[in-house]
Amino acid sequence: MKKPYHPTRTCPHRWCKPLHLAPAPFFLASFAFDLWHNWVFLVYLFMAILGGTWVTRFVHFKRQPRSGPVTVAHVVQDLRESPTALDLEMEDAKYEGTGWRMLEVRKGWARVAVACDALIVLLVGAGAMSTFADPAAEAKHAASATIDAPMVIGLLVGMAFFGFDLYAHKKATQPRKPKRAWVPAFMRTNV
């Protein structure tokens, strides 16, 4: 008998976790191949990790209530205190099985999140396949790589897509706002 799926804020759909784990070995193999031929990819990885951390904090940004006017220092402090993906997973694990908090999943946003994850799997798989289909040509290409405009633009586009993917995961489990009433309460007949 199949257990029911309990969604978390980082994995709102039952296919999310497998799609998050599937590209890891292919990415590591391609990255190790490129790093073996050129150290510039280490700088690229450092920028991607740093950017990914801050994109996660931007997506899950929570403004703290303050009595006075908000300054730039307050915004920076709130950004630093925003939860990371690991914080969200730990909080969800704390409530799992207790029944205290049930996440309502929005099916549309969950499907968008799964589609983004599947696209990432396909892109990493295609990159790994092109790397290992012709290793000699890819080794020459990796050896000639430098930090230039196309690499930075590719990193920025990748961060934007990663941000949208995180946003779709966030919106999939975010509570819905109450609908506005078109008719005032005193005019409704079923009140």
Model description:
With 191 residues, the chain is mostly helical. The protein has one domain (16-175). The chain has 8 helices and no strands. It has helices spanning 16-21, 24-37, 40-59, 72-80, 85-95, 107-133, 135-143, 149-173. α2 packs across α7, α3 packs parallel to α8 (149-173) and α6 packs antiparallel against α8 (149-173).
* Integer tally of domains: 1
Give me the strand/helix succession: HHHHHHHH
Strand content: under 5%
Number of strands: 0
N-to-C span:
44 Å
Class inferred from helices and paired strands: mainly alpha
Principal-axes geometry comes out as globular
What proportion of the residues is helical, as a percent range?
55-70%
- For the residues shown, what is the average pLDDT? 85
Number of helices: 8
Spans of at least 5 consecutive residues whose pLDDT stays below 50 are none
From the alpha carbons, calculate the radius of gyration and give it in angstroms: 22 Å
Describe the secondary-structure layout.
Layout: H1 16-21, H2 24-37, H3 40-59, H4 72-80, H5 85-95, H6 107-133, H7 135-143, H8 149-173
What's this, in brief?
The protein is mainly alpha-helical.
List keywords for this structure.
mainly alpha, globular, single chain, 63% helix, 191 residues, 8 helices
